[in-house]
Design goal:
The structure holds 2 protein chains of 2 kinds. Helix content of chain A is 72%, strand content 3%. Chain A has 14 helices and 2 strands. By secondary structure, chain A is mainly alpha-helical. Classes of the chains: A mainly alpha, B alpha/beta. The interface between A and B is medium-sized, with 28 and 42 residues.
């Protein structure tokens, strides 16, 4: 008889909209404390190891930048998709294809060196990611398929394709049978920003530049206006003369290209060769980054750093406390859950339907009695 | 605490107040409805009619004030409770499932688990006894708007209410259908039921209502007997000052003027099972004239508008011609660049994006036509220029708002409509196509919009107005055509058009009939 119902609030609280990511972070902390306590670890101690220690030295900040760069790059692209109400869930696959396309140059032409190599690789990476993202876009516009499913399924195709490549045709012949390609030559490696201080490479700069450019696109350019109109009211967008199909391609190609750039930057900068696995789930974590950053490119930079920390913290608690580094995934999942939960409660309030009716009836009965009492 | 002075009052409202933030939507409203009377609730848009009715029906709770039902104080906290008391409501916008039958739709709202067959039988009996014939087994999707309204009324009557609230019931009916409805209402009155009748059509209020309560800016400004008032005195009470009558200067030399908008043999297959196919529509709108398209809602007007605007493209490029050039295969943006402007029926979500600012909504329809002014190099939006233009329109159309550049959804319907119409008028388009220009707009603003449309035509533009409001069409049109079931009649020059002729065409009389009267006239 009782039923939960979401009732749209007439007004959204601006204050709580802004606070939402912080509330979500706080709730994640509380839930995390319970989690650590249940694992038999002192939560305060665990939090220090998880969130403070991994960023207490300069070289560690460089590690943070390495982890944050792909998250930010992918997430700013996804933010454009999500603002347009287009659901690209397959950034992980586009990331992998970007890595593969870009790596084709140093792997297939190991003798090709010089200043042209790196720009070409980055360009190839973007083309690869964009081309792979074009598949769900084409399927959606041509056949009306659900892009959530197609883009997600293509992730697994990409993972297996990479696995096959590094075990098969692209395997390093001198690699003692290990499933990996040759080490890239020096001109195919993304340089480090400050080699003396730490390992962070130009990928982080790309991420910051992309965030600023996407911010300009979304807030200053007509194209960004088109994205927002089509995303919030498609019929008004059609009335404005904006094409929904064109927008599907634009959003997928843009986010695919940025995921591809992230992919080749990771392979060329942090790894230096292709391996069966080149991403600890950056493409999926970036979805959390995008929402935690309120789909705002500048917010995404901050959110990217926070989520990068969950990766580092996961590694830290594994080595210090012997807890599985899967705990990082749990933290990321909880964070997304609470962000979406907070956002939902900002727009809606919960009503118990069965109870409300019963209450109404009680008042109806009570009214005459009240009168008698008087 | 009962109403001691008059025992016959079914409903008594005292000092009912509802405050939203800083706005007092209803300010100490007093209202008495006697048993067996039809009571009119009059007021402009935003006067507080809807808020008051929602409080009576339990969808909103009052901040203060009392409601007495049969002399006893009650608190109406939910629509379910209002129904239990005996208050029924027929909404302006129907809430029916098109893919279900009439009886199934009724069963959904009754919620008492009785079998569909018995509900259907009851509904059939009731519908015939009230002169509202209805086949309970027919699919709602196949029914006309008038028939759908009957379902709503029957659904309401099945709950044997003492008070029936009707919100703008005739806005979707032909004059003949409205006559039928009035008979039913009079019948209900003779049975001792009370009716609260919300309308802005003053003539019909004068015709059927016993008493009227007039609201303005959330306050009761008067109670009166509408039969003793004139339409203009009622309007004056509603608006607070004299409503300027629309002046239609004679359209000289139209016969020789160039057609700026030509529709030639426009046909369109239905896009969904419930949309109307367009059948061989022909129409010319010449420079300097206003052509009105009358018709009951849902007879293809929406489909026609989409085809003319270019939101939906035509196979035959020559089926829509703008300023002498084929436009049927061109997008809405190109059609705008050719000099056309469009105002759709739905304001929120079609003509405007609800969560966007007014200035952004200006850009919505004018980013291409005013590309040089509003968009700079590299596609950068010149927000300063857009903002200034939006403010110019706001002043020109007297758009009332709470912030300098609010979200579209924050405006009242009438004010948003003024902005959307003003947005297009500001361009002085050569061809203007408007669907329901003043739907839900208060009398003062409606007169303003109508006058602006006439002046646009007289300055040499072609204006096509699709409207359900016959009074409006007779006020502004040089000729009126009628759309019925996807077909368009020949335009009837205004001098020959009468309510009766148009009404017959709206009800589906042979298009040949109109041609015949044209020739004999």
């Amino acid at each position: 008889m009782m039923r939960l119902e979401l009732v749209k609030r007439p007004q959204r609280s601006m204050l709580f909209s802004a606070l939402s990511p912080f509330i979500a972070f706080g709730l994640t902390m509380i839930a995390g404390a319970i989690l650590f306590a249940l694992l038999g670890v002192n939560p305060l101690n665990a939090f220090e190891i998880y969130f403070i220690e991994p960023i207490s030295q300069v070289w560690q900040l460089h590690e943070l930048a390495i982890k944050a760069a792909p998250l930010i790059l992918i997430a700013v692209g996804l933010s454009v998709c999500y603002k347009a109400n287009i659901w690209n869930i397959g950034a992980e696959g586009q990331f992998i294809l970007g890595g593969i396309f870009g790596s084709a140059i140093p792997v297939l032409f190991p003798g090709f060196e010089g200043p042209l190599v790196l720009p070409l690789m980055l360009l190839f990476g973007m083309v690869g990611g964009a081309a792979y993202a074009a598949i769900p876009a084409l399927l959606k516009t041509r056949f009306g398929t659900n892009e959530i499913l197609t883009s997600l399924m293509l992730v697994y195709v990409a993972q297996l394709f990479l696995d096959w490549l590094v075990r098969g045709p692209w395997r390093d012949p001198q690699g003692h049978g290990f499933p990996q390609t040759i080490q890239f030559n020096d001109s195919a490696v993304l340089p480090e920003l400050m080699p003396d201080a730490g390992r962070a490479n130009w990928g982080f700069v790309f991420a910051l530049v992309a965030a600023v450019l996407i911010w300009v696109l979304m807030s200053r350019l007509l194209k960004g206006f088109e994205v927002r109109v089509l995303g919030s009211s498609p019929r008004a967008g059609r009335f404005a003369g904006f094409g929904l199909n064109r927008m599907v391609f634009f959003a997928f190609l843009l986010s695919g290209a940025l995921a591809g750039l992230a992919g080749i930057s990771e392979v060329s900068g942090a790894i230096g060769q292709l391996q069966p696995v080149i991403s600890p789930g950056y493409g999926f974590t970036a979805i959390i980054v995008a929402f935690l950053g309120r789909l705002n490119p500048l917010g995404i930079v901050a959110a990217g750093l926070v989520l990068a920390l969950t990766y580092l913290g996961g590694e830290a608690v594994q080595s210090a406390l012997g807890i599985s580094d899967k705990v990082a995934r749990v933290f990321q999942g909880m964070l997304l859950f609470f962000v979406l939960g907070c956002d939902t409660l900002i727009h809606y309030r919960i009503r118990l339907v069965g109870m409300a009716l019963a209450k109404g009836a009680a008042k109806l009965d009570a009214a005459p009695k009240l009168k008698e009492a008087r | 605490m009962s109403a001691d002075h008059d025992g016959a009052n079914l409903l008594e409202v005292r000092g009912l107040t509802k405050i939203f933030g800083t706005l007092t939507a209803c300010d100490h409203i007093d209202l008495n409805i006697a048993k067996g009377e039809i009571h009119a609730l009059l007021g402009e848009n935003g006067a507080g009619k809807s808020t008051l009715v929602k409080m009576l029906f339990g969808s909103l709770e009052a901040n203060s004030g009392e409601i007495f039902w049969n002399g006893e104080a009650v608190r109406i906290t939910s629509p379910g409770m209002a129904k239990k008391l005996g208050i029924g409501m027929v909404f302006q916008h129907f809430s029916l499932f098109e893919a279900l039958t009439a009886a199934e739709n009724i069963a959904l709202s009754l919620d008492d688990g009785s079998p569909i067959s018995s509900i259907a039988a009851k509904a059939r009996a009731l519908s015939f006894s009230y002169g509202l014939p209805l086949d309970p087994d027919s699919l709602v999707g196949d029914l006309s708007v008038g028939e759908r309204q009957r379902i709503e009324i029957i659904r309401c009557l099945l709950q044997t209410p003492q008070l029936i609230i009707l919100d703008e019931p005739t806005s979707v009916l032909t004059p003949q259908e409205a006559d039928k409805l009035f008979e039913t209402l009079e019948r209900l009155r003779s049975e001792g039921k009370s009716i609260l009748y919300i309308s802005h059509r003053l003539e019909e209020v004068k015709r059927i209502c016993d008493r009227a309560t007039v609201l303005r800016h959330g306050k009761v400004v008067g109670h009166c007997n509408p039969r003793e008032e004139t339409a203009s005195s009622l309007a004056r009470m509603m608006v607070g000052n004299e409503v300027k009558a629309v002046v239609r200067a004679p359209a000289d030399g139209i016969e020789t003027a160039q057609p700026l908008l030509e529709i030639r043999a426009l046909s369109r297959k239905p896009a969904t099972p419930f949309s109307i196919p367009l059948k061989n529509i022909n129409l010319n709108v010449r420079a300097g004239e206003v052509i009105g398209i009358a018709g009951v809602a849902g007879n293809g007007q929406g489909e026609f508008f989409e085809s003319v605007s270019g939101e939906v493209l035509q196979q035959d490029a020559a089926s829509v011609r703008i300023r002498g050039k084929d436009a049927g295969a061109l997008s809405i943006t190109v059609r705008r660049l050719m000099g056309a402007a469009f105002v759709p029926e739905e304001r929120l979500g079609h003509g405007a994006a609800p969560r966007m600012k007014l200035s952004e909504n200006l850009l919505l329809s004018r980013h291409a036509t005013d590309g040089k002014v509003f968009v700079g190099t590299g596609g950068a939006v010149k927000s300063g220029a857009v903002y200034a233009a939006a403010q110019r329109i706001i002043v020109a159309m007297d758009v009332r708002k709470s912030a300098p550049d609010p979200e579209a959804a924050a405006l009242s319907g009438g004010n948003l409509q003024k902005f959307i119409v003003g947005r297009e008028l500001d361009r002085s388009p050569a061809v203007m196509v408007v669907n329901q220009p003043t739907w839900g707009v208060d009398a003062g603003a409606a007169a303003h919009i109508r006058q602006a449309l006439i002046e646009l035509a007289r300055s040499g533009s072609a204006v096509l107005v699709i409207s359900q409001d016959l009074d409006e069409l007779f006020e502004i049109s040089d000729a009126i055509a009628v759309m019925h079931n996807g077909e368009l009649s020949k335009p009837l020059p205004i001098a020959e058009a009468t309510f009766e002729k148009i009404g017959l065409l709206m009800g589906g009389a042979e298009p040949g009939h109109a041609e015949h009267t044209l020739e004999t006239a």
